[in-house]
Write a structure and sequence with these properties.
0% strand; mainly alpha; 17 helices; 2 domains
Amino acid sequence: MPSSFGWTLLSRDALRRAETQLRDDTEGVRDEIGFLSLHQAYADRFFPGTSVLHTRLRYVLFVPWMYERAASQPDRLRIAAAIEKQELELTRRLKESGEAGIIGIRSYPNPTAQPPSMTYWSALGTWRILRPGLNGAMPSRQTIHRAVARRTTRQQLHDDDKQLLLEEEPIFCSVPNPPSAWSDFTQPLDFQLAEAEARFLRGCFLAVERPGSNGVPSLFARLVEQGVEMDDSLQLWSSKVRAAADPVDRTSLVLARQAAALSAIGRGVYAALVEEMREKHDGVPTNTIHRTNLDSVCDLHAADSLELKVDGIVGDAPSVPRAILEVLQVTQQWLRGRRGDLRVMYETYERAESRRKGRRARLSKTLMGRERRAEWIPEGHPAAEPLHYRWRNVRQLLMDLQGAS
């Protein structure tokens, strides 16, 4: 048999979409209908700058330290390669210390698709650790790489008082100096913050504002300011967290909890509808895992779900698509109607999924939809659960801050 090979060129946008899909699968996020927009809106409101990919707080300092080291090397034309090499070294040194939450540990010794410098870049900007450009916007990694490469390598000139005649703008704010172990590649590293590092980060977090509020501290900032003690069991809806919130966010926390509950039921409805379509429309014998589980999900979350005023979400999260609000409303009506036939919700769910996924939509009655359902494995689809608004990640960051030595 003759064989051939060729090159397939993908745009950066296509690669980014592929990486996002892989990342979402790794994180257990399946967003066929679009509930993630609701998750992101409330998470950004309460915890600006955070991400579901954030694991440990000291990465916020590791990244500037890596860039400062790369910027001081003689050859600065390959800054991206230098950072990638340092990130692999960092993974190795953290692994040697037995730490949990190491980015890139699964792919090591190969680079990860989402390295710390990428994962934490937005946070560095939001928390004002990364210096803004002259136009006030936060520079991208590529912009910083080009700026570092353009820096002069010639002997710097000084005046008679030995002051630099031309001083280059620093990339980051005055982050604390790294520990002595940082420069010794034979030593392991850990996520334990030194007191000076924690003090610096507290100052950064206290300045994190609620988006669009004209200077009102975010819930994130208030949790840091009030020193709310964190542990693995503390829930976002706990009395301690509510007490730290201002009256506006306290109301939003109630809405967010109710929306999280109704979204859990919505996720369960989606999976149950796919099972139903496979069996009734396609004639494919299908396990009833998700249809059976839907009863349990409803029992757990119906009370909070029925309390939600769906239109109230618009004030907190104006970016949430109308299609998602329609899904929430029809799901709430179904709950009030004593959980009757799932098919009364089909058109709303099918419309929302098709708008989001196009030809890849599983609920579509087209031939492509049938093929997508044939590929779908009920046992491999995650059980429905409420939105978490990145709370587990935020809680770990705050625990790291409180555990400073």
